[in-house]
Specification:
Helices cover 0% and strands 40% of the residues. By secondary structure, the protein is mainly β. A four-stranded antiparallel β-sheet has the order 2-1-3-4, with no helix packed on it.
């Protein structure tokens, strides 16, 4: 018997604009099994702008609440092309 542990996690991303207002919110993305990375499309970003992304890994609880999430991974995202 095996544990489907990879099926219980979800990725959430919040992209903030330069004034730190939420610009894009993406939640409940399932990680790709047997892959190191999961690609998430961020549409609507303006060339020449810099955004701040907060990425969380949460345990799927069957609700919309995100009670059990990792601390955010915070990155600067300059859009150059």
């Amino acid at each position: 018997m095996t544990c489907p542990c990879d099926a219980q996690y979800r990725i959430s991303v919040t992209v903030y604009d330069q004034a730190m207002r939420p610009f894009i919110v993406i939640s409940d993305v399932a990680p790709r099994p047997n892959h190191r990375f999961t690609r998430i499309e961020l549409n609507g970003l303006a060339v020449g702008s810099t955004y701040t992304t907060y990425t969380y890994v949460c345990v799927s609880q069957g609700t919309l609440l995100q009670d059990d999430c990792s601390p955010p991974k915070i990155d600067q995202l300059p859009v150059i092309c």
